[in-house]
Amino acid sequence: MKILKYTFALLLCATLSSCSSDDDSNSEDLTGQTGTLTLKFDNGVGDQDFIFGTSYNKSSAESYKLETLKYIISNVRVKDENGNTFTYPSADNVFIVDEAEGNNAGEIYIDLDNVDAANYTEITFGLGIDQDRYALGAEGQGDFLTQAEEAGMMWSWATGYRFMRFDGTFSSTTVTDEALNIHMGSVGTSLDNYREITLQFPNTVRVRETTTPQVHIVADIAKVFDGETSVELSNGYSQVHTDATTTTVIANNFQNAFSVHHVHNE
After folding, report:
1. Where are the domains of the chain?
2. How far apart are CA 50 and CA 99, in angstroms?
3. C-alpha distance from residue 75 to each of 19, 26, 54, 72, 89 (Å)
4. What is the distance between the alpha carbons of residues 138 and 148, in angstroms, rounded to a whole number?
5. In this predicted model, what pLDDT tens digit does every residue of 151-208 receive, in sequence order?
6. Could you tell me the sign of the dihedral formed by the alpha carbons of 49, 50, 52, 58, in that order?
7. pTM: predicted TM-score of the whole model, two decimal places
8. Whole-number Å distance between alpha carbons of 21 and 26
């Protein structure tokens, strides 16, 4: 009987301790607190790391090698556990993810400063430039217009931005190392290829003054070619620029190439 009493007492103590811990967590005052959220983009091909100059096979008898891989993301926002959304300030909310600027592991870091402290559960970002930002005109693009021009991410102002730039070569059963240039984007206001991606976090992202969580986002480049639609490079998809059909297919494929691999709360 004594053993049963002691066991019950221990269970009751553990329960009360757990409740107390939860109450402390729920009552944490984050008012006015901000922190840094780091997005870590990592390009891959299926379960392989992406490496410039490496030949990757498609689902067909084609293969490709890239020497340029870069794309624009914008309109980053995160949603917390209570359904509140924090949107990064518009003027700074556009970035170029350039594989050539990655670290030794091929990771490209984007630091979002002064993010409201909260427990976040999902992220949304745009692939490319939306029509509202484009409608601000060349003068309304701020420093990003110069950055995009220097990175080769524009055709001309009238035509607009390149949302992605994949340059390299492809081979098939009939050709070897033929030119490959995939430059998907919107075409002014006549063709809108801007896409948004929403990803759930595998665990809560805790933004605080004293912590800088990292969200590891993987882009599977294979899905650009073999995604929602499998494309044949030798049949119109080795040169993608402003055509309404090919750019839209690539935009839809790329939209589904992203996933959150893991989260570090540091």
Report:
1. 34-264
2. 9
3. 38, 29, 32, 10, 9
4. 12
5. 999 999 989 999 999 999 999 999 999 999 999 999 999 999 999 999 999 999 999 9
6. positive
7. 0.89
8. 9
